[in-house]
Amino acid sequence: xxxxxxxxxxxxxxxxxxxxxxxxxxxxxxxxxxxxxxxGVLRVLNDDTVxxxxxxxxxxxxxxxxxxxxxxxxxxxxxxxxNIAVIKRGDIQIMSAGTGITHSEYxxxxxxxxxxxxxxxxxxxxxxNPRYDQITLNEADRHNQLQQIVSPNADDAGVFINQDAxxxxxxxxxxxxxxxxxxxxxxGVYAFVLQGDFTINNHSLNTRDGxxxxxIDSLDIVAQSNEAEILLMEVPI
Length: 237
Fold this sequence. Notes:
Elements: E1 3-7, E2 13-16, E3 20-24, E4 42-50, E5 55-61, E6 65-72, E7 74-79, E8 84-88, E9 91-96, E10 101-107, E11 114-121, E12 131-136, E13 146-151, E14 159-160, E15 166-172, E16 177-181, E17 187-195, E18 198-200, E19 203-205, E20 210-214, E21 218-223, E22 228-236
Parallel strand pairs: 13-14
Antiparallel strand pairs: 1-20, 2-3, 3-4, 4-11, 5-10, 6-9, 6-11, 7-8, 7-10, 9-12, 13-15, 15-22, 16-21, 17-20, 17-22, 18-19, 18-21
């Protein structure tokens, strides 16, 4: 019998710092909810909007897999490994913080906001050498199908993650139906709706809702609106 947890968009934690507006699906910074600490190894799912010309100053991380998925605008990244990069919609970025890393993230545009998802996953192996990677994907490859963007297999599609986790993005026409078979027994899936309406395993979801579901073999996904977009994060429970 499948188990699930449903997080409606308006139940998320919210922090408005003026330059940053952030919605927290799980406990983060000053938002602490004992019932919403993580979903398996998925620790943080932040839905961030950064004002023009603003950003996160240099700060440290260790022993965390940090995935950034830009939704709108250009985000500039600098880190202690010497990486300087700009990521935009269509790009996927990952940092394995491992033994320790510092980095900064800025909205390089002076007139447009940046919107991105910041996701933290506990690593499978601790204290690895820090690592950075980013890729640019063809968004057309997620039209009415699930496009793999994160994988634990370095030679597979998407960026490599130090965890038995697979992420997919999909953008669907209304009434399109698909199925997602889990990659590893014992894993669960956290589905996050970027826009539109879905039914997943008979659960109704709307924009920015999240559904964590486990003790399942697959997900049945039905798009209930046009250009409905979803992120699936399969992770160990």
